[in-house]
Amino acid sequence: MRNPYHYQKSKHTRTRKPPAFSSYKPFKSELQIEFAGQCVYCRALDSYKGSESFGVDHYRPQKKFPRLATEYSNLFYCCNRCNSQKRDFWPNARDWREERFIPNPCDYVMFDHLRYARGEVKAHSVAGAFTEEKLDLNDPDCVVFRESLITMLAATNSQIETAKNIQQEAQAALDAATTDETRNIAREIYNEASKNLSTLQAAITQVIG
Ligand SMILES: [Zn+2]
């Protein structure tokens, strides 16, 4: 199963075309769809954190670029944690020269800078290392949380495989049944496995959307 925490291997092209709102707040729901409910920086999922713990990031900070405060291309979907770590940061000329900047998924290939190894973020560039430190992406609590989510998803996935196997075997038994009694037993097992399967799949959807 794919790690829900992963950075994109290509630049993101925006698909939403929201109207020109006069405040940045109404953009949040557009950004949530645009960036599939994940923080663009740490890849946290709002499906388990809740969208109230997410907000609108001004890539070029409002304080320094007030005209871009409601410019859609300057806005990103971001968890509150990353947003508060990033604050009003914007690289100065020296920072740019030394590649001390935070990449975003529209202008940069995030995978060139940051990659996930299970629950931990690994930097693959100077900007990646800078971002990891600036946004505190490997905060121990966050790493532990991600690891447990990955483990839980893997366990649920293996239960799904088991339920599918039971379902298949029950179907074969149903096809081969020669008496009402064996047919009924096979049908009951089949239905039970189907019920488990949908519960497990719903659990996965709830976590990773
Ligand atoms: Zn984040």
Kindly provide the radius of gyration, computed on alpha-carbon positions and rounded to a whole number of angstroms.
23 Å
Query: What number of domains?
Result: 2
* N to C succession of SSEs: HHEEHHHEEHHH
Mean pLDDT: 95
Helix count from the secondary structure assignment:
8
Question: How many angstroms separate the termini?
Answer: 14 Å
Largest sheet: 2 strands, antiparallel
Helical proportion, percent range: 40-55%
Number of beta-strand segments:
4
Principal-axis shape equals: elongated
What's the SSE blueprint?
Layout: H1 27-34, H2 46-49, E1 54-58, E2 75-79, H3 80-86, H4 93-97, H5 110-113, E3 114-117, E4 120-123, H6 126-134, H7 140-176, H8 180-208
Antiparallel strand pairs: 1-2, 3-4
Helix pairs in contact: 7-8
Bound molecules: zinc ion.
Provide the descriptors you would attach to this structure in a database record:
single chain, about 210 residues, mainly alpha, 2 domains, two-stranded antiparallel sheet, 8 helices, about 50% helix, elongated, binds zinc ion
Account of the protein in words:
- This protein is mainly α.
- It folds into 2 domains: 27-134, no CATH class; 143-204.
- The protein contains 8 helices and 4 strands; from the N terminus they run H-H-E-E-H-H-H-E-E-H-H-H.
- Strand 3 and strand 4 (120-123) form a beta hairpin.
- The longest helix is centred in the last third of the chain and has 37 residues, at 140-176.
- The chain is elongated and about 80 Å long.
- Bound molecules: zinc ion.
